[in-house]
Amino acid sequence: MLGYQIRASIVFYQKTGRDYFLEWLKKNLQFGYIRQRNDNMSEYTIVGAEAVSNILKLLKPYLRLKNKQVNLALKVLSKMPGKGNKITPKELFKLSRLVDGFADLNYSKKRTNTSKKVEEFLRSHNLL
Predict the structure, then answer these.
(1) Positive or negative, the Cα torsion across 98, 118, 112, 48?
(2) Could you give the dihedral angle defined by the CA atoms of residues 111, 83, 77 and 14, in that order, rounded to the nearest 10 degrees?
(3) Which pLDDT does position 26 carry in this prediction?
(4) Exposure b/e, 58-67, CB count within 10 A at least 16 = b
(5) Helix-strand-coil percent breakdown of the chain, rounded to 5?
(6) Global pTM exceeds 0.90
(7) pLDDT tens digits, residue range 19-57?
(8) Domain count, the chain
(9) What are phi and psi of 61, to 5 degrees?
(10) Residue 97 falls within a domain, yes or no?
(11) Residue 74 is part of which domain span?
């Protein structure tokens, strides 16, 4: 175990009660799950590198926003090992550096797992 993993996911949000669009989206995309949160919001979540990659490629021609995020995500996903193949410590570190690029594109201030933390962990366990 390398202590960290790269997990691909897409989440669509909609006010509960108007989540018929999420149901329509799920029916048409045929991936993921929907949950109703306690704050009157619903989420449609798609998890997994292959599913996320397929959805991003499908949606990309129609995007007006988040184009840079999609391009970066597709770049990261294209470099991930295929199904059944384990990621090496060196690959994990390289991919984590690419993932750091999302911090420049998004507004999230909560992100604590960075390539620096991954590198420190891998080095402290003599994996890098």
Answers:
(1) positive
(2) -60
(3) 95
(4) eeeeeeeeee
(5) 50, 15, 40
(6) no
(7) 899 999 999 999 999 999 999 999 999 999 999 999 999
(8) 1
(9) -65, -15
(10) yes
(11) 9-124
